[in-house]
Design brief:
The complex is a heterodimer of chains A (115) and B (248). Chain A starts with 11 loop residues before the first helix and ends with a helix. Chain A has helices at 12-21, 28-38, 47-59, 86-114, and strands at residues 26-27, 63-66, 81-84. The longest helix of chain A has 29 residues, at 86-114. By secondary structure, chain A is mainly alpha-helical. A three-stranded antiparallel sheet of chain A has the order 1-3-2. With 248 residues, chain B is mostly helical. Chain B folds into two domains: 2-75, no CATH class; 80-246, no CATH class. Classes of the chains: A mainly alpha (115), B mainly alpha (248).
């Protein structure tokens, strides 16, 4: 994954994690909850998938550990927060653009078929 | 009561996380355990069936550990040498079958042979990594693994005791179990490995003695061969321990 550029398509897990981190830095469980909420409960990510993806994404420079503590009520010294990097934001933007293009093609195809 | 249960479950999860490769563990063991603790706290007050959801988390984490190990094997190219070695060795019967009717391997022979060779090669690579640079340690591992492979192969092919398929041959599985369990218990440290190999030699003699007493025939030559293999490996492990103690 380290050799990937912003135009490489993302796996669903990576896309959901980037989406979850695009609004603010989060710790592991907050990411899991956010992914579940963003997908209306359709994507249920466990710690194994989450931290495997975090490892690959950190190595690829898409996210990094953050020193911020944005959840003071639940805060714990052991809790590690992650934030999206510039490269991660570029990858997310590129992926969302791809989705928009696919959607446009699909809508144009349906409109053409409906005529 | 509930807190005790939660503590036990957290301890089980911490043990599961220890199955991850060390570099991964060093970075993510704490956050993973913290995430699991958060999840557990949430589930305790949840109406969802806690057992099924926790079982899923445990299974998912176990799958993650296996995935990380596979990823490490691929990254370190650990799989390449055993794979090439296995393919090269399997080429021998494959080519021989074209020129002689004496060699007649079926698909199952190739599958079992391939699995054994690949397993042995991978075992060697994984254990030998633990003492990079020590020639004696690597040689000791190579001899022990080759001995283990030979023992399994002979038993599968013809059997040492009685006729092919005689259940008494399963006693030789005990020799391998002693070696594997001993190696794991001593965490592959050379001095401990030397003792594990000595224990294997002792077991080999014990099996021969039981076979003789039970009238299954005398196995002096083959027993002597395997005892020599385990003793040679033990000596090399002992030498490797001596070299490590003497320092550079």
């Amino acid at each position: 994954m380290s050799g990937k550029n912003a135009n490489t398509p993302l796996t669903p897990a990576v896309l959901h994690i980037l989406l979850a981190l695009s609004s603010s830095a989060k710790h592991g469980y907050a990411i899991m909850k956010q992914v579940e909420a963003d997908s209306s409960g359709k994507v249920n990510m466990g710690p194994g998938t989450l931290y495997g993806s975090i490892r690959r994404m950190t190595d690829a420079g898409l996210i990094r550990e953050s020193s911020k503590r944005v959840d003071p009520e639940l805060d714990d010294q052991r809790r590690v927060y992650y934030e999206i990097t510039g490269k991660g934001q570029e990858s997310l933007d590129a992926e969302l653009q791809r989705y928009r293009e696919v959607l446009a093609v699909a809508q144009a195809g349906r409109a053409h078929a409906g005529r | 009561m509930l807190a005790d249960k939660a503590r036990r479950v957290r301890r089980c999860y911490a043990a599961l996380v220890r199955l991850y490769p060390r570099p991964f563990r060093e970075r993510y063991s704490e956050p993973m355990q913290q995430t699991f603790a958060d999840l557990l706290n949430d589930r305790i007050g949840d109406e969802r069936p806690a057992f099924a959801s926790l079982a899923w988390v445990f299974a998912e984490t176990l799958a993650g550990a296996i995935g990380e190990h596979m990823n490490m094997l691929v990254q370190r190219k650990t799989l390449i040498r055993p794979l090439l070695g296995t393919l090269l060795i399997l080429m021998v019967p494959l080519v021989a079958m074209r020129y002689t009717g004496e060699v007649n391997w079926g698909l199952d022979d190739f599958v079992v042979g391939g699995a054994l060779l690949m397993g042995a090669g991978l075992t060697f690579e994984l254990i030998a990594q633990k003492a990079a640079g020590s020639l004696a340690y690597r040689a000791a591992v190579a001899i022990a693994v080759a001995g283990g492979l030979f023992l399994v192969w002979v038993n599968l092919a013809v059997g040492i005791l009685g006729h092919t398929g005689n259940a008494a041959n399963l006693m030789y599985l005990g020799v391998l179990v002693v070696g594997i369990a001993g190696s794991v218990l001593v965490r592959f440290q050379p001095q401990g490995m030397s003792r594990a190999m000595l224990a294997m030699a002792g077991c080999q003699v014990l099996v021969a003695a039981i076979a003789l007493a039970a009238g299954l025939g005398q196995t002096f030559l083959i027993t002597a061969l395997f005892v020599a293999i385990w003793l040679l490996s033990a000596w090399l492990f002992h030498r490797s321990a001596g070299n490590a103690a003497a320092g550079p």
